[in-house]
Amino acid sequence: MSNLQARMQALSEEFTKLQKDLQDAVGSRQKLEAQRQENVGVQKEFKKLKEDETIYKLMGPILLKQDRAEAESTVNGRLEFISSEISRLETQIKETQAKIEKKKNEILQLQTSAQAATQQAVKA
Fold it and tell me: pTM for the full model?
């Protein structure tokens, strides 16, 4: 019976770790989504600007002039990177959810077999 308990403990720990991994991935996904929204907002602001207007970039406590094409390129590059990271995290989330489901089924099967073993021991 202690073997079953040890196996149950191990499965439970693995299940808990998977749940934490899922929470971390979802949290990272939410942060990236917020960054994406911020950069989309910056893109919209660029579209509102007239050609002769100046763009400034905050570098520490200083505002520096920045070339419009360079600023737009930077924002577009960030958006591409963020989108690829979101896709990667979504894949990771789906995989982790599948692992959690599999681990949950393993735990249920182990519980069922432990209950059956207990019932047989009581009958004997």
Answer: 0.82
